[in-house]
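User: Hey, quick favor. My workstation is busy. Could you predict this chain's structure for me?
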Amino acid sequence: MTSFKRQFYLLSAATRWLRRSRARIRSLRGLKGWEQIAACRGIDASIFFPDDEDDNAELAKQICHGCSVATPCLEYAITVREKEGVWGGATQRERRSIIRRRRRAAAKQRALQETESIKER
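Assistant: No problem, here it is.
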């Protein structure tokens, strides 16, 4: 792939990612109701934002485990790259791990699609 084609490909990939991210954020904003029915509503925020997340996040995770909207909460935190606290039952470290796994899976899928398109030529 020439340098120009590669730059164009990377730019178009970045544009597609940005559009999808904006769409996800818009859809999550439309789900404002999940915040109103979350199990953590009204509970002291310090439980969900402990000083040492790795050691003190168990209570927050237990609360999230029983919550009916933990999945939209987690997706919101991943989409907006929330850096602090326990969201949807996941600490910052766990959310970063989820993001890395999703990126790897997407890269594998793109590589598979590229090899299939090369074979079709």
